[in-house]
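Blackboard transcription, Thursday session:
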Amino acid sequence: MTDALPAECLDQLFRTARTHNELGGEVDDDTLRRLYDLLKWGPTSANQCPARFVFVKSQAAKDKLGPALDEGNYAKTMAAPVTVIVAYDLDFHEKLPVLFPHADARSWFAGDLEKRKVQAFRNGSLQGAYLLLAARALGLDTGPMSGFDNAKVDEAFFKGTRIKSNFLVNLGRGDKSKLFPRSPRLSFDEVARIE
Amino acid sequence: MTDALPAECLDQLFRTARTHNELGGEVDDDTLRRLYDLLKWGPTSANQCPARFVFVKSQAAKDKLGPALDEGNYAKTMAAPVTVIVAYDLDFHEKLPVLFPHADARSWFAGDLEKRKVQAFRNGSLQGAYLLLAARALGLDTGPMSGFDNAKVDEAFFKGTRIKSNFLVNLGRGDKSKLFPRSPRLSFDEVARIE
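(Written on the board underneath:)
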């Protein structure tokens, strides 16, 4: 039987972790690889692993991303050490012979783009959440956003593929003194029931 | 500056955690409330918090769920201490006056069901992932599944609402000796790039 993690770990992952607008510091490439080497273990249906990631760090990459951002997300994203484009590949099934070798899982999805759209969006979003919590587990602060033009990002970063952007995540070190008060959450009884 | 969590915490969350088919033990209602009180803090766009949860525990609830399950998911789900129906509410915007009090966020979504479908599916899936990792953080084992008839689950559990089922999660205590070898993951360079 496994114990619960210590209280300070639950705080770092969930209870005191916050979404940050202003992120500074440096995030080196080794940290990005460690981040992926954690999040990759999170479960997806039939081990689809549809998520794809671009880590935007250089000025050239920021210049490609900038025009796609909503005005309110522009300055903070240009200033962040890294912005992750969390995306998903609608052709994820092509890798299932490697990822799910026990059965011909590729055939479950080949020729059914509508099914793949639902599966890739669901499981790619799960993997985006694994990235957020893996980043917090590594001591990074995060700033996820969906205020941007997906079609522009896809054109700039994924042209000629079936990879589609999902959401963005700024990564770095936040400053708790600059945070606004936390927004409320719904109570258990407002969103859940035990039957 | 925040440190990375200790290695054994990273193991419990990601590196040695596994999806379990056979789950036993007991999961009391207090644990389900603690689970929600962790996962609720995970970020969603504009604090939408669209996820809704039904914790299926009783025989009567299992009897409602059973006919919707794919054959391969039936026996393990009937035997699990709890099955969570992870769902999302397409009318999540009605709660934004409480959840996002700084602006009239309700008006961003009212009258645009197609936009709400994308937002609720993305952010509700993120919250499903937060549930999976919060369960592991509490020492529970998980068995997520998407092999079921969503329309049947919606009819049985969410009739008369705009709440839609997303995926299912069995919860309990697993037995590592019964696991198959772990399926592979894609390498960093196959799914990611640093620009």
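Lecturer's comment: The longest strand of chain B covers residues 163-172.
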